[in-house]
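User: Teach me something about this protein's shape.
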Amino acid sequence: MTIQQLKYIIKIVEQGSITKAAKQLYITQPSLSNAVKDLEKELNITIFNRTVRGIALTTDGAEFLSYARQVVEQTELLEQRYLNKKKSRQICSISTQHYAFSVNAFVELVKENSTDEYQFTLRETRTYDIIEDVKNMRSEIGILYLNNFNEKVMLKLLKENHLDFIPLFEAIPHVFVSTSNPLSSKTHVTLEDLEEYPYLSFEQGEFNSFYFSEEILPTIYRKKSLRVSDRATLFNLLIGLDGYTISTGVLSSDLNGDNIISIPLKTETLEKIQVGWIVNSKTILSTAAKRYIEHLKMVINQYGFDVIE
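Assistant: First, the predicted structure itself:
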């Protein structure tokens, strides 16, 4: 087993494909495939499952990747210390539901980076894709929420995929509306107040289960419903159509402007949203991923929420 082989595995996971990784590494695809097979044979484990849809890390592969990243990181620190090698390019990937605080924390992570080169990735994406990204180590961390409705199903799914959920904070549901919306002057709103307004939600693609919804109360019938794929479009429609969406109440004027406000949603039952991060249970987080979590906690505190320790 060599450091180069460890770097090969990291690059394959980063690219999500042996073919793409081979191009990045300037070697042939058969050479890279053989290097992986030799390593698997030497260690007597299967690192990747090969399917018609591509490759996916096995449970053993996820554990091996964690150790590989640590070894490569420590090797590069030694080279910096004794060979005067410049700091290596930092790599970190995060997958998240559409939350402003996830972006705020990512901004802080990038700003504090001290290397000349880096490759940080933030994927605002669908709930199912977040789980798949973290399962296959395409992202180190995923950000999503649990509540009374989806908790049992989601925790079962996470367990089946060897993923752990670590709570960050709890919030009561809030409605986001534009400052020009007739509801904007209210101290709180009810579902009845919202009946005549367009409801905006994030579409979940082919995995459009109620349990994967980014908004709580997904089973309630709405007369007017619009689904979008990105946060900018959703906020533009909130303003242009006097629509609304339901979220945590964490709203960033830096990212979303001053035309959107947050109003508590009053429901018959006490609804709670528990936002947290997921991680592969075999993973040992990189330094950058650990720093991202620290920034998440600081941002959440700045918004006035208590971090769950």
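Now, about its shape. The CA atoms of residues 156 and 227 lie 27 Å apart. The first helix runs from residue 3 to 15. If you'd like, I can walk through any region in more detail.
User: That's plenty for now, thanks!
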